[in-house]
Task: structure prediction
Amino acid sequence: MSVTLFGVLAVSFMMLMYALESKGRHFIALFALGCVLSSTYGFLSGAWPFGVVEAIWTLVALQRWRSSS
Result:
């Protein structure tokens, strides 16, 4: 139950930060954090393909954050 709750909160946070990215570059960094949390959830729940995809999205988001001004 606690892993499921963690997953719901992680994915919700990630989606909210994605929606707010146009407000400032710090939301891109927070989106990357949300991806890390979602990836962690994927691995904890045994859904390793989800964990891998979210880890890749973390790298994409960090690259976008670095290149934003």
The two ends are 40 Å apart (CA to CA). The chain has one domain: 2-67.
